[in-house]
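Supplementary Text 2. Reproducibility record for the structural model of the 202-residue chain.

All settings were left at their defaults, and a single model was retained for analysis rather than an ensemble. We include the record here because the model underlies the residue-level annotations in Supplementary Table 4.
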Amino acid sequence: MRITLSKILIVFVFISIVSCNKKEENNSAQNKEVPKALKEDNTSLTRYSKRKGDLINQLYFDLVEKSPELQNLEEQIENFNPNETINEFDNFNMKSKDYYSSSEFLTNRINDSVLKNRIVALLKKSNNQYSFKEKEYDKVISKVVDKKKSIEDYHNALKIVLTLPIIEKYQNENAPSKQNFEKIIKKEDSIIEATKKLTPKY
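Retained model, structure tokens:
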């Protein structure tokens, strides 16, 4: 009975050691896993990275695929379009400008000078009031444009800050061996010496 228990215990310990070694190997492999964007044979881009072809965007959108928070941010940025509102005002503004331009043309056709002057004053007052409103809209639109630029700035900064550790990790773990270059240099030296020996004196 003691012998059987001892054998069982030995087998159990052996299995535990092997299992631990496998876990360590798996963890090590995961830690050294090269991102898809940095693989030489990379042909499969993520749903997000298909929009942007450069390396930083590919690395960033690989992270997006794994992060609900980043996915939510990207959806917000993609669906955010202030141009629709700006275009709405531009159309509105154009109609107002067209009206005052047309009214000036019609006013010039009025022959009665007293009536004409009254209409000119009326239109001038209205146009001045609208010009004030237009300036207020211009200020707001300018803020919208500036905020949009800030979103782009912070978005680009986010991509760099999140992907910089990835490229640095890749550099540290995947740099080509210098020994390979030293072997090439030795071979080059050998070829140079062989060439020299075969070169007649001159």
